[in-house]
Amino acid sequence: MGGYGVSVGLYGVSVGLYGMSMGLYGYLWGSMRYLWGSLGWLWGDMGCLWGSMGGYGVSMGYHTLRFYWWREGGRLRPFRCCRARDVGWSVLDVAFSPDGAHCLYCSWSNYVHVYDIYGDGDTHTALDLRPEERRFAVFSLAVGPDGREVLGGGSDGCIYLYDREVQRRTLKVEAHEDDVNAVALADAGGQLLLSGGDDGVTRAWDRRCLGQDRARPVGLLTGHRDGVTFLHTRGDGRYVVSNSKDQTAKLWDLRRPAGPASWDYRWQRAPRRALTSPPLPGDSSLMTYRGHVVLNTLLRCRLAPPSGDGGGQYLSAGCATGAVIVYDVLTGRPVRRLTNHSGCVRDVSWHPQGGALASASVGGA
User: Fold this and answer.
1) Judging by DSSP bridges, how do beta strands 102-106 and 301-303 pair with one another?
2) Which stretches are WD repeats (predicted)?
3) Least CB-packed of 140, 187, 226, 305 within 10 Å?
């Protein structure tokens, strides 16, 4: 519906509207004007996200969530702010329930919290993941299509499933050798789960045959030389884009997974500033995007929605230099560099209807 969005933050968030006309890449990018400025005393933002209907969004700060209505013409009106619970350092990720009534958030904590956006009180419900490690974080969240199951990626290398109806953790899978930085749902039914870790591998899991004792991925996406920082899908069960500490983003076709990997990513780490390198053996990605800098934090990239003006032809990525880099998905070339931020841009989020791009910076808007 394209009615709301969310930004997660340490230092600021901004939303930009752009005009487009047909041209070399399908249309030329018009001027960009930012609608979301500094959030007052809030030092910055860790991320941003639009709701599935596009009617509102949320900004995520160290300990706060701020919600904004989206109005025609790109106007944003704040309507709610809450202080997050049980936060270690900062809120790390947020996700909306399918009905848009709840916002889920995570941090350095054993709990994922569910905030009632429209409730009369300040209601936060804690979901205990019961990890075994004393110091634990959930770096990434995804919510099932019916809102019942919550998927989380942990600092212990495991993925977690929590059932909100029975109010308990139902699954814990040892998925990666190190931190699970990213999780995503690949299909509309929520049966194909994805996880990306510091081992540089993205793994696909079939929910229907997933058990704690005999958990095996149904597919591997291998080709990154360093840790995966984020995964984004359109929910069509086909394509996923990954961002990585090897300074690249990659587009994958889930119908073409790689075979078993014969190398260890932990011992094949490329220099962080390497901008060109030959593909690794077994790299099954469709396209590699270079031009953004991934440093300091888990930077994100997202595919434009197919319903937008460009027909889903674009990919946006946050950059540690304070820029937002927009790529042509088909050619892999950067087509736009937005430089209005003064610090590292950790997150970007396309409006569901394709008319706006939100960005969140840890250095202020």
Assistant:
1) unpaired
2) 173-206, 221-255
3) 187
| Cα angle 146-180-49, degrees, rounded to a multiple of 5 | 50
- Cα 134 vs. chain centroid, distance in angstroms? 26
Asked whether 212 and 173 are in contact (CB, 8 A), the reply is yes
* Domain count within the chain: 1
Report the candidate in 305, 345, 306, 307 with the shortest Cα–Cα distance to residue 323.
345
Q: Between the CA of residue 186 and those of 101, 142, 194, 233, what are the distances in Å? A: 23, 10, 7, 6
Q: What is the CATH number of the domain that holds 207?
A: 2.130.10.10
| Cα angle 156, 158, 162; round to 5 | 120
SS3 content of the chain, % helix, strand, coil (to 5): 0, 50, 50
At a CB cut-off of 8 Å and minimum separation 6, what does 71 contact?
A: 77
